[in-house]
Amino acid sequence: MSQAGAELFPLFLKLRGRAVLLVGGGPVATAKASALADAGARVTVVAPQVTDALALLAQGQGWTVHQRGFVEADVAGAWLAIAAATSDVNRAVAQAAEARQLFVVAVDDPASASAYGAGIVRKAGVTVAISTSGQAPALAGLLREGLEAVLPEDLDAWVGEAARQRAAWRSDGTPMAERRPRLLAALNRLYELRRPDRPPAAMASGGRVTLVGAGPGDPDLLTRRGAERLGDADIVFYDALSSETMRALAPEARWFYVGKRACRQSIAQDTLNRLLIKEAARGRRVVRLKAGDPFVFGRGGEEALALAQAGIPCEVVPGVSSAVAAAALAGIPVTHRGVASAFTVLSGHHEAVYRPVLAGVPRTGATIVVLMGLRQRAAIARYLLQLGWQAETPAAVVLGAATAAAARFVSTVGELASSAASDQTGDDDFSRPGVLVIGEAVALAGEIERAYAAAPRDESARAAEASREGDEEQRDRDRGAGRTEKGSR
Ligand SMILES: C[S@@+](CC[C@H](N)C(=O)[O-])C[C@H]1O[C@@H](n2cnc3c(N)ncnc32)[C@H](O)[C@@H]1O
Predict the structure, then answer these.
(1) Prediction pTM value
(2) Parallel, antiparallel, or unpaired: how do β-strands 366-371 and 434-438 relate?
(3) CA of 330 to the centre of ligand 1 (A)
(4) How many A from CA of 291 to the centre of ligand 1?
C-alpha cells in the first residue's frame, strides 16, 4: 500500500468550464456532482436514474443529463471521467477512458481507477488533500477531521502574510535557504502584534511615520530619540544593511528591507511612499529607518512631502550623516582652522551633477566630500586636475565607516586620477559604502588617528578593531594605505 501511495502523483485540477463525464446517479455520484459544481466543471451526467438532488443540481448548473446506460462514446471530449456506478459499469468507463488516455476516478473502486479523489480540508484558501490510494476512504475522512481541528482559525492571516513574504522574497531576491526561517518569524510576529500589551485599539489610532536617521552604521551612533521611536514602532522600513544591528531596539516591530539589492532598488520610491501612507493610515507607528541622515541623499524629503500631502503625521529624527562621520572617524576634520573653512558635500553618481558643483569649490581652503562616488573617483580626480587643483592635494577614501570593516586609504588627487591609484583600495566589489574626502585637511588624518589610538576605547570600538585585526586581507590593505599616507604628507 505504501508502494502504491509512493507512486501516486498528487495534483489539483482546474476544472472551471471544462467538460467532465459523471457516470452514475446515486448518492455517491450526487456528492461528487456537488464537488464538481464547486470546481465550476461543465458536467454531463449519464445514468438510467438520478437522485432528485442531482437532477436539481444539474438543472441549476445547466448540465446535460442523459438518463440511460453508459456508452463508450460518452467519454468523447471529456477532460476527466468520474465513475460512481456499479463495478461493471465502472469497468466499462475505465476501458473506454483508457483507450482515449483519459483519467478515471472510479469511486470506491480502485480496480477501475486511474486516479483517486482525495479527502479535502479547505480553510482560507488552503486546501489539504488526503489520499489512502483508494484503499481506506473512511480513514481519509477521519484524518480530514483531525487536520481540520489542528489548522488555526486565522489561517487566512497566515496565507496573507505568506503571500506578502513571497512577493518580498521575489523582489528582494531572497535566497531559498532564508525563506523558511523568515516566514516562520513573520508568522510569529502576527501573534506578537496581538499581545494584550499591544491592544488593537492602540493600533487603530495615533498612526504616524517617523523618518529616523540611523547614523553611519554603529548602533551607538543612533540618536536617543531615534532609539526611542524605534522602541515604539509597530513596523520598520529600513534600507541600510548596517541598520540590521538595530533590530534589537525594536524586537516587536515588523521589519521590512526596502533598500538596494545587488545595486538595484528593491522597491520603487512611489510604492514605498504608498506603503508608508497605508501603514500609518491603519493606525500603525511606522519608522522609516535610513542610513546617516534622512535628508542627506536619502530621499527623506520626498517621503516627508508625500506624507504631508496624504495628511499623515510625520516627524524627522536627524541622524549622524556619513558626510561628516566617515571623515571624522577616519581622523579627517572637514573644517580645520587655517586649513579648511568650508566643506562641500556632493553626490558623485553622475558627471552632469558633480561637475558644476566641483567647478564652484575654491581650490584651497575647502574640503570636498563625495558620497556615492567611489566608482567615479578617478574621473572626479581628473576633473579636479583640469580645474587647476594641485596633484599633491591629499585625498582619502573612507570605507564602511563605523562598521567592523572600516578602512581608510590616503592618497593624493594626482594618484587618484591614475587608474592604478584608483584600484589601491582593492574595493572593486564595493561591498562597503564609502566616501571620497579631498582637501588639505585630509593630511591631518594620520596625526589625529594617532590621538584616537592613545585614547581609552570602549567595547564596541575594541570589537571593531579586533575584527579588523583578524582580517588578513584588510591588514595588507592597511599596510598599502600606510605607505601611501606617508608619501602624501
Ligand atoms: C544614498 S547615500 C545615503 C547617505 C546617508 N543619508 C547619510 O547621511 O550618510 C549612500 C552613500 O552614503 C555613504 N555612506 C553611507 N554610510 C557610509 C559609511 N558607513 N561609510 C562610508 N560611507 C557611507 C556612501 O557614499 C554611500 O554611497
Answers:
(1) 0.56
(2) antiparallel
(3) 14
(4) 7
